[in-house]
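User: structure tokens for this one?
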Amino acid sequence: MEKEKRESCGIFGICSPGDEVAKLIYFALYALQHRGQESAGIAVSNGRETMLLKDLGLVSQVFSERDLVTLRGHMGLGHVRYSTTGKTAWENSQPIQVTRGGRTIYVAHNGNLVNTDALRRELAGNGFVFRSTSDTEVIAGLLAPYLGGDLIEGLRQVLPRLEGAYSLGIMTENQLIGVRDPYGIRPLCVGRYMGGFAISSESCGLDIIGAEYVREIEPGEAAVIDGEGLRFVQVMEKKKPSLCIFEFIYFARPDSVLYGTYLYHARKHMGMYLAQEAPVEADVVIPVPDTGVPAAIGFSQASGIPFGEGLIKNRYVGRTFIQPTQAIRQLGVRLKLNPLVRDIKGKRLVVVDDSIVRGTTTREIVKMLRDAGAREIHMRISSPPDMYPCFYGIDTAVRKELIASTKSVEEIRRFIGADSLHYLSMENLVRSTGRPKDQFCTACFDAEYPIPVPEDVLSDKFRLEGRMTR
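Assistant:
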């Protein structure tokens, strides 16, 4: 996957009476690290007092053993962040903390609001002092007046005013709440852990601590966890379910469950349908690791062409505070991928990846394989052409930078230097999920945005060659 399409964020919260939960949250955030690598944070509560620790960096960089020992409490909320609103700065790391009348609320957010500016102006006009530039603090500020009262009623009043995508983890001194927007664009589920309960962006966050998956939180629904246990409350009217289909294609881990489907199986079926749609004579099927692996296995099984590893990923190349020299930077994808020359030379390759964003990374991969001696390279992409920007919590390029918005498939093939190129059809992508198309947001492929986007926000990313196109 070309890393120009960035993940959103990961949320994990747990209430487990009698337990110290900081380490549980730490390991769950480890499992959700793929959803955000810019910052990490954990807030805990013992029922009377709360404590927060957050910083820029990966989970393993932010928290030490000593930190986790000092974060004492039976309830907690954690977050890993990739910024979509607000720059990368300590102040924008989450959970966001707001205190009012001696009470504290923490909010962790996965998604993106499209009416943030109007809500910020309103809060500022009422005397609210912002300490960050993220839309998450807007949500916390709107909920703060309900601290000490009926927070569920506060959700009923505040959430309908939020326009955009949001899965939220909310914690006070004595309550943990998980809630999804009425369209359910971003995932959030609930699990049972010993005598308590947990919320997680993905089921893999539950798996790592041994929690039992219960179910997904429904669109417009809140999962309320406190001393009385777990209860579900519909705080908003449910709209058309619109889970981001890229969760199935790439964002969520393949061992997670969404809509009752293991994503590994869905991605394998995408590869099988690719083999049916675009058969080719070849010697070996190789994935672009790691996200292309399940689809490549499916392609191999359906086509009878052997599966092999042709690219080895350096899994320790991630965010670093050491800037590479220009000479090293020019190596591009070679920092992360290295070809198995002896297994590639003279071979006809089917190369399976999950998407093409700008095309530059794919072109480098094709060139690398050519340099390694590949005789033919046939690119197979397990999603349709990515043509439109996302406004709901995924950091994508403006439309003019998305290669499929300005070039045909044949033009893209020539640009990346492959012998053939085929994208999976929308019909078979949806078929792979086991759910109908009307239960997904597919706007990145067809511009059918389920939540209206303000024209001024839309125009910034939708402009092609100086004109608006939709």
